[in-house]
Write a structure and sequence with these properties.
It is built from 17 helices and two strands. The chain has helices at 3-10, 12-34, 38-46, 52-73, 83-86, 91-107, 112-119, 124-142, 146-153, 166-169, 174-195, 199-225, 238-249, 258-276, 288-308, 312-321, 325-345, and strands spanning 89-90, 157-158.
C-alpha cells in the first residue's frame, strides 16, 4: 500500500506520526547502542582526544550529510521549502542560542536527544532535566521568555532562500555537499579505526545519521503525496518536547503529526537498546548541588535551542545536513559554548593554604 492510499484512509497526520514513530525508534536504538552524544564528542575534542565518542558523532554527522545530499542529487528530496532554508533566519539567535545550548549540555551531561535516550534507560537525572528543558522550550516559544528570544533574534537577521543556503552562497550545489560529506566520512572512519570502535559504535553511528536522512525523505514523500499542506522536516527535539508538554497539559491537544510519533519512538527505541545491552539502571542525583546544576543546564538548553532554531540534532545534524547557514553557526556555537563550560567546570579548587602546611587528618581508632 502506497502513501497516497494510506493518507486517503487515515489522513496525513496519523501517517506522519506512524512514520515518525518508526524513524524515532531506529534513532533511539542506534543512538543508545552507539553512545551517540555531542557533549561527549565536544569534551574529547577540547581535550585533544580524537577517540571513540568524537568518532561516533562524526560517523553520524557524515552519514546524515552524505545520505541527504545524495537524495537531493538523485531528485528524491527537495529541501527548498524547509523552514531552515525558506524562512527568514537569525544569525544572532543561532550564535547566542548555540553558545547557551552548548554550555547547558555540559551541565546536564547530555544534549536534548541524549536526555531522552538516558531517560529510557532509567536515568532520573536525565528525566528531570528533560522535563525542565521542555518547560523552558515552551516558555521560550510562546511564553514569558518569548520576548527575550524575539529581541535577541532581531539583532542580526538574514533572508530566506539562497542567502541562507551555505552551498549556494559559495556557488556550490548538492554534488559539492556530497563530496564534503564523503570527506568527513573518511575522517570519521580514520578516527574510528584509530580508537578501536566496537561494532555497535560503527553500526549505531551510521544508523543514527541515516535516521536523520530518513526523516527528511519521509516527510518529503508525505508532503508530495498529500492534498493538504505538509511541512517537510527532519529530526529535532526542542519543538517536539514543547509540543508534547502542551499535549499533556492542554485541551484540545496539538494536531497529530510527525513529532507526535517521533518522541515516543525514540524513547521506546532507547529502552529496547538498553534491554539488548542489559544496561537499564535506575540512577539519581548525588547531592543538591548536582541537581541545581542539571536544572540550570536544562534551562539554558531549552532557551538556547529555541533561540538557535533547534537542538544538537535539530540544528546541528538535521539543519547541518542541508547546509543551512544558521544551523552551521548554531553548531559552531554549541562546540564553543560546550568547550568553554567544560573548561570552567573543570577548573581546580584552589585553597589559600599550601598543601605542605595543611593540618594532618587524624583518624580515630576504636579501642
Amino acid at each position: 500500500m502506497d502513501l497516497t492510499s494510506l493518507m486517503d484512509r487515515h489522513g496525513s497526520g496519523p501517517v506522519l506520526a506512524a512514520g515518525g514513530a518508526l524513524i524515532g525508534l531506529l534513532f533511539g536504538f542506534f543512538a543508545q547502542r552507539s553512545r551517540f552524544c555531542l557533549r561527549a564528542a565536544v569534551i574529547e575534542f577540547w581535550h585533544g582526544k580524537f577517540a571513540e565518542k568524537l568518532s561516533v558523532w562524526l560517523l553520524a554527522f557524515a552519514s546524515a550529510v552524505v545520505a541527504v545530499q545524495a537524495l537531493i542529487l538523485l531528485g528524491a528530496l527537495d529541501v527548498s521549502g524547509a523552514r531552515q532554508l525558506a524562512n527568514r533566519g537569525s544569525l544572532s539567535g543561532a550564535l547566542v542560542g548555540g553558545l547557551l545550548f552548548g554550555a547547558g549540555m555540559i551541565m546536564t551531561r547530555g544534549c536534548a536527544s541524549r536526555l531522552l535516550v538516558l531517560s529510557a534507560n532509567g536515568n532520573l537525572r536525565a528525566l528531570l532535566s528533560g522535563l525542565v528543558f521542555a518547560v523552558t522550550a515552551q516558555a521560550t516559544l510562546a511564553g514569558s521568555l518569548a520576548p527575550l528570544r524575539a529581541g535577541i533574534s532581531a539583532w542580526w537577521t538574514i533572508d530566506g532562500g539562497a542567502a541562507r543556503h551555505l552551498l549556494e552562497r559559495v556557488g556550490g550545489g548538492a554534488a559539492d555537499g556530497l563530496v564534503l560529506g564523503l570527506l568527513w566520512l573518511v575522517v570519521a572512519v580514520i578516527f574510528s579505526l584509530r580508537s578501536g570502535n566496537r561494532p555497535w559504535m560503527w553500526i549505531g553511528g551510521v544508523g543514527t545519521g541515516l535516521a536523520v536522512a530518513a526523516a527528511w525523505w519521509f516527510s518529503h514523500q508525505v508532503a508530495k503525496s498529500s492534498f493538504d499542506p505538509v511541512q517537510i522536516q527532519g529530526l529535532t527535539f526542542s519543538g517536539p518536547s514543547a509540543e508534547w508538554l502542551m499535549r499533556v497539559l492542554t485541551s484540545p491537544a496539538p494536531a497529530i503529526g510527525f513529532d507526535a510519533g517521533m518522541l515516543p519512538g525514540v524513547f521506546v527505541g532507547s529502552a529496547l537498546g538498553a534491554w539488548v545491552g542489559r544496561e537499564f539502571k535506575i540512577e539519581g542525583f548525588k547531592n543538591g548541588y548536582s541537581m541545581a546544576r542539571y536544572i540550570v543546564g536544562a534551562m539554558l538548553m531549552g532557551f538556547g535551542s529555541m533561540l538557535a532554531g533547534g537542538c544538537a540534532v535539530g540544528a546541528g545534524m538535521t539543519g547541518g545536513a542541508i547546509f543551512a547557514l544558521t544551523a552551521w553557526l548554531a553548531l559552531a556555537g554549541m562546540w564553543a559554548g560546550g568547550g568553554l563550560m567544560e573548561r570552567w567546570l573543570a577548573e581546580p579548587v584552589h585553597t589559600t593554604q599550601p598543601a605542605t602546611q595543611r593540618a594532618p587528618v587524624v583518624v580515630p581508632v576504636a579501642p
